[in-house]
């Protein structure tokens, strides 16, 4: 059972997040309670976020309700930074855009890009991203940056 604060937040989120992307039932929140680490924290709410506009609204509501949020990209963390006992914001499929500057000096990546894919985009320019985690072919840029 959600506390009053989380019930209010859940109600507000239902106004613009489809039920299929708003998770609060015990079984599914339990599934989101771990990442690749040994840690377990069961989130009160899980929201699959598909756009920047949604993210802005969600963060505003979380601030209004005083509820902490944690971001999750692929959930491959070995350190537990993708688990929470509050609100888990899971990056959806809408976060996979990327752009390389004309001179290939910079690359802009959204958090849903797989690290190995970023390196493939940069390979024609003999470049790669700086971090090189062991999970490069499954972790997302959002988690690498975190």
Short description:
The protein has 146 residues and is α/β, with parallel strands linked by helices. It contains five helices and six strands, in the order αβαβαββββαα.
- At the fourth level of CATH, the homologous superfamily of the largest domain is Uridine Diphospho-n-acetylenolpyruvylglucosamine Reductase, domain 2
SSE pattern: HEHEHEEEEHH
Q: State the total count of DSSP E strands.
A: 6
Alpha-beta content class: alpha/beta
Report the sheet-strand fraction.
15-25%
Roughly how many Å apart are the termini? 31 Å
Q: CATH fold name of the largest domain, please?
A: Uridine Diphospho-n-acetylenolpyruvylglucosamine Reductase, domain 2
The total count of helices amounts to 5
Q: Any idea how many domains?
A: 2
Biggest sheet character:
4 strands, mixed
CATH A-level architecture of the largest domain: 2-Layer Sandwich
Helix content: 25-40%
> Could you name the CATH class of the largest domain?
Alpha Beta
Radius of gyration: 17 Å
The residue-averaged pLDDT reads 95
The coarse silhouette is globular
Strand order of the largest sheet: 1-2-4-3
Unreliable stretches (pLDDT < 50, length at least 5) are none
């Amino acid at each position: 059972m959600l506390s009053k604060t989380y019930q209010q937040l859940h109600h507000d989120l239902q106004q613009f997040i489809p039920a299929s992307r708003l998770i609060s039932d015990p079984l599914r929140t339990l599934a989101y309670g771990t990442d690749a680490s040994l840690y377990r924290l069961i989130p009160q709410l899980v929201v699959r976020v598909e756009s920047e506009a949604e993210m802005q609204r969600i963060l505003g509501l979380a601030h209004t309700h005083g509820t902490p949020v944690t971001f999750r990209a692929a959930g491959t963390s070995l350190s537990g930074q993708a688990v929470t006992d509050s609100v888990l914001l899971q990056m959806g499929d809408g976060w996979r855009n990327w752009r390389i500057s004309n001179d290939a000096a910079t690359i802009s990546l959204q958090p849903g890009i797989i690290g190995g894919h970023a390196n493939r985009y940069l390979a024609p320019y003999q470049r790669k991203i700086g971090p090189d985690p062991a999970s490069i072919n499954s972790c997302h840029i959002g988690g690498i940056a975190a």
